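hey can u check if this looks right to u? its 408 residues, i copy pasted from the old doc so theres a chance i mangled smth
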Amino acid sequence: MASVQVAHLHQFLLPHSSTSSSSAAAACIGRPMHRRCRRLCRPVASLPAGPGSKTRREFIAETAVAPLALAALAVPSAPARSEEPALAEWERVYLPIDPGVVLLDIAFVPDDMNHGFLLGTRQTIMETKDGGNTWFPRSIPSAEDEDFNYRFNSISFQGKEGWIVGKPAILLYTSDAGESWDRIPLSAQLPGDMVYIKATGEKSAEMVTDEGAIYVTSNRGYNWKAAVQETVSATLNRTVSSGISGASYYTGTFNTVNRSPDGKYVAVSSRGNFYLTWEPGQAFWQPHNRAVARRIQNMGWRADGGLWLLVRGGGLFLSKGTGITEDFEEVPVQSRGFGILDVGFRSKEEAWAAGGSGILLRTTNGGKTWTRDKAADNIAANLYSVKFIDDNKGFVLGNDGVLLRYLG
């Protein structure tokens, strides 16, 4: 990432202050003091005369140099990259991309864990061959045929097969670990934007849109079968009388959606009024009232099969027990009032939470207590996503091209 050049800021600030000070002093020497210059001119008027005293020319030269020295001390130079406070468990990886890019997803080839891909806004696809230490832009011609600025939302690999989905509607497939990518045609009738894809087997994948449509394919994406029989809007219209608070305000899209390892989904409504769940075999999404006063920011799955829930303003809740439930209890966290945006579990006991203004929290007891990595407070970015590929490989994705790599 290109660093901002501010080390020579004093070249633009100092001449103004020094010149104005010295010229004011020169203008007032030998003249009556006036209100604007009284403090500056008083030392000149009280200069002693006689042997050993300084001439007016010498004094003017010194008064011109003094503000320069003081201002030079007052203007901080830009910290070098190596001077940034070191994170206790993470390191920042600098990327050769525009600073406005928001990073959205990351995945590695299971057969070669040094080979991975990183997705983001502004048609960003990055590739690594050294486990995520360094990244370089990856050009995919099949994704550049049209004059679109794609937002690549999700990527998933199983074996050498990989899938990428994005907005506007685009689906990419690889069978050779990402050496080449083919674009798979999609129906114009697809409800909503594709926000998530999961590789599930040979030539097989599961895809989710922000309107709650779930599709599965077993023939490389040429045909897709609906796993849900009705849209979320239709489900809510049918069940609105069942007492789901906020269902009448539903705008038809999800805010977030997360999948468990065994295929269950939890999604948060666009306004955060309620949440929905789906399990394989169910014909439609099941809406749930939120058990907390504040609106929901995000939800996901713990390593033990339970749920975590984040509310706007920085609150964190854990479900009681495992599986799908509406029973949650709050866990104290030091969020400094900033919102927590995502949680990623490294194991059943260790997890990390990330959020606005560089918030980074850690638990080592399954979420009962959390401590803040204060060094992350110096990262001027929102951290949107925590991804653990395995026990030893993890990443935090943020805006402005911020990427953190887990050191362990």
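Helices lie at 10-28, 38-45, 56-74, 232-239.
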